[in-house]
Each structure stands twice: as C-alpha cells, then as structure tokens.
Amino acid sequence: MTTRGTGLNADRRRERALALAHARTVVIKVGSAVLSNSQGLDTDVMAELARQMAVVRNAAAGRRLVLVSSGAVAAGRAVLAANGQKVEAAGLAARQAAAAVGQGRLIRVWEDSFAVHGISTAQMLLTRDDLRARARFLNIRNTVAALLHAGVLPIVNENDTVSVSGLKFGDNDCLASLLVNLADADIFINLTSAPGVLAADPRRTPDAPVMEYIDDAAALDLKQLCGGKTEAGSGGMYSKLLAAGRAAQIGVPTLIVQGRAPDVLIRAFDLELAGDGDAPTFFDACQGTWVFPARQAIPHRKFWIAYQSEPAGDVLVDAGAANALLRTGGSLLPGGVHAVEGSFQKGALVRVIHEGQTLGVGLSNYSAAYLKKIMGLKRHEVAAILGDAHYPEVIHRDNLLLDAAV
Questions:
Q1: Residues 341, 357 contacting (CB under 8 angstroms)
Q2: Is 235 annotated as a binding residue?
Q3: How far apart are CA 176 and CA 158, in angstroms?
Q4: Partners of 395 in the beta sheet?
Q5: 223 is in an annotated binding site
Q6: Rg (CA), the chain
Q7: Which helix (H) or strand (E) holds 86?
Q8: What are the transmembrane regions (predicted)?
Q9: Cα dist. 75→33, 69, 141, 389 in Å?
Q10: Is 238 annotated to bind ligand?
Q11: I need a surface site. Which of 12, 20, 142, 201 has the fewest CB within 10 A?
Q12: 346 appears as a binding residue in the annotation
C-alpha cells in the first residue's frame, strides 16, 4: 500500500499504463454523487461523461464498455418534488417508488447523451436473484456478450422496484464487481465523488493523502480506513474497496477516481508509458487510486459461489480446522465446527469464522439444524446419527473461497 507522497516505481506505472492501453472490455460504474445535484440528475455531467466514454471506446479497435449507473432514486425524488408530490426520505417502499419514477428519466438522459456520438444503448435492470440462479446468470452473460458484439453499450442498474432485502446487491459497487466477472472485463473503473482512496479515515484525519496505488486490497483494514456512506448514494468508499477486492481476486485491476475531474477518462486511457521515472500527468491532475489485481486469480466458478448471494449464516471453527483450511488446503469437517449461527438450508452460502475473523465463505452441505447435531463429532459418530446418507465435509474445499471480500 503506497500513498502519492512516497512515489511509485517505473515498473508499476508501466504495468498500470499497459493495462489501461490494452483493455478491451471495461466496466465503468458511476455513483449518484457524481450524477446528481440538489435538483436531481446533472445532465451536463452525464453528457460530458458520455462524450469521454465515446472517445475511450473509439480510441482502440474492438474496445467495449459496460456502464453501471446509479441515479434512479435521486432522479425520481427530484421529479416528484418538482410535481409537488410528497417525497419520503427513508424506507424501502419510498426508495422503490422514487426509483420507479426516476429510472425512465435516467435511461433517457443516457440514451440521448450517447446518441449524439452515434452509440446505441441498452437498459438492463437486475436483482441479485438474477445472478444467483445459474440459468439466469448464463442468460444474462449471453445477452451482455451479444450486445457488446453488436456494438451496443449496456447500461445496468439494480432493479430497485422489485428488489427485497434478501435479493438486493446493497449498492451498485457490488453489482458492478459481479458484472466484471460476468462480462469478462479487463478493467474496472469506479467514478466517485472522492479524489481517490485516502490513506486514513477522513473523519479522523482530514488532511490524509490519496493513495496512488493499493497493492493488496485484501490486506486493507476497511473499518479503520474508510469513512461513512455518501448522502446521495448508498455505498461510500468501504463498498468501493470491497468491490475492488472482488475484482482483484479474478485478476482485474480497479481505478477509483473522481468522476467530475476534467477529462478524467480520457486522461486515464491516454497515459503514456512512464520514462525516466517521470510521473504520468493523469495522477498529477486527477489523483485517483489504482488497485492492482491479485497475482494469482481465483477460478470464475469460485467467484460466482462466493458472491452470488449474501451469506445466510456463520459456522464457527476451532484452531485445528482454521489451520487445515488456511495452511493445508483442506475441507471443513464436522469435527472442526464448534458453533453454528443463523438459520440456513443445505447448499446455502455461509461464513467460516475463527476467533471473530472471517476466513472465507462456502456452500454448506448441511442445514443449520443438522449441522448443530453433528458439529464437533468424528466421521463415525456422524454416521451413527445420520446413517450412510451424509457428507464427510461440511464445506468441500472446491466450494470454499478464503479471503472473500464480504
């Protein structure tokens, strides 16, 4: 982890520049704080970002963009207020109603902004359940691939009007990170209201510098590093770094940068290779934080298992089980479990926790009720209770992702 003040060696700058120059599929997420103001959507900002995305897309043959856009709730509230309607400030139903009003306005502004540059767009509204069901996931993947092949720019948002708490992504940072996997993206760009990732919580350290790069997102202490959520959006830097951590796990770097900085996207993709230790002008002008990908990417299947839904419960393990999982690549056996929290069914995604620390997430072969009956027992003791129709593992190592960004 390095801040702007310490400098970045030429090799790392070159790696960053090459990744941007060679990117063919790019997921760009834009937050509400960038797109909206006190009057609702800032159409000038949206038009400017569309112009920049057109330049970026046309700068390299075959380059394709997927846009994840927030702003429907902010747009809807502004429309309702302008029409003299009462606007509720909180509550799921109020947000869903505002999103229903604002989504049409949001996609219309984007469509008009891209049409000026000859770019056709498509609207995609998703819930987490769409990605959790494997058949739907594959259908969405094929649809995105077909749109990109046809030269259409998909504009994706959460389907707030039908989402319920158990099926919500929580924020569009999460949705965007899942689309990085679905679209086989090369780069993830998160446009935010902040100049980048600050080296300390800005509420405690107002003059904290922007980190020019983050080498290992999994090593960050997000609770210490990040401030609260933004007023306009629902995420904040905490969720942006979680999303960057997920992307890093499948080998995709992330650029977190201020969305309203002048020509921010054009500057980023016009980076020249650093020579003689000179700093690229982009970070001098726009700051921003580059999150490097993991050196060893995880399989896409494990990514889908870990992030297709929120964990339904917790499985607490002893030191021996933790050592087997972390050091020897073992599976989680019943004997290593000493407590079960939550109510979940067989096949549910659960957290694996040791001494208060989440080791990872995985698919449980047992429901919470059955697991409570067999936890701490040896294999022959499990067989005596459940008979031959049982699994030797609580979570098989093939269905387990350690260091999950949850």
A1: no
A2: yes
A3: 10
A4: 332
A5: no
A6: 22
A7: none
A8: none
A9: 12, 12, 28, 54
A10: yes
A11: 142
A12: no
Read off the tokens for 72. 């429907």
Q: For residue range 338-350, what is the model confidence (pLDDT) as tens digits?
A: 999 999 999 999 9
Handedness of CA 323, 325, 326, 328 (dihedral sign): positive
CA nearest to 256, candidates 270, 273, 239, 271 = 239
Backbone angles phi, psi at 64, to 5 degrees: -130, 145
The packing angle between helices 172-182 and 134-149, to 10°, is: 80
**DSSP secondary-structure letter at 165?**
G
In this prediction the pTM is: 0.87
Return the residue matching tokens 């008009």: 112
Polymer length of the chain:
406
For residue 162, CA distances in Å to 97, 159, 167, 225, 310 come to 10, 6, 9, 33, 18
Distances (CA, A) of 86 to 18, 83, 230: 51, 9, 23
Q: 53: part of which helix (H) or strand (E)?
A: helix 43-58
The Cα diameter of the chain in Å comes to 71
Q: Which domains does the chain have, with CATH numbers?
A: 4-297 (3.40.1160.10), 311-402 (2.30.130.10)
Does residue 70 have a known ligand-binding role?
yes
H or E element: which one contains 19? helix 10-22
Q: Which residues is 205 bridged to in the sheet? A: none
Residue 239 in marked binding region:
yes
Residue 273, sorted as left (phi over 0), alpha (psi -120 to 50) or beta, turns out to be: beta
Lookup: tokens for 391 = 């699994």
CA pseudo-torsion sign 220, 226, 232, 235: positive
DSSP summary character for residue 3: -
- Name the token pair of 371: 């697991």
Query: Considering only CA atoms, which of 184, 142, 138, 156 is closest in space to residue 66?
Result: 156
pLDDT tens, position by position, 156-169: 998 877 765 544 55
CB 29 within 8 A of CB 68: yes
Flag whether 388 is marked binding: no
What type of residue sits at position 137? Answer: F
Is 36 annotated as contributing to ligand binding? no
**How far, in Å, CA of 121 to CA of 113, rounded?**
10
Give the residue from 124, 138, 113 showing the smallest Cα distance to 172: 124
- CA atoms of 340 and 368, how far apart (whole Å): 7
- Rounded distance between C-alpha atoms, residue 350 and residue 114, angstroms: 42
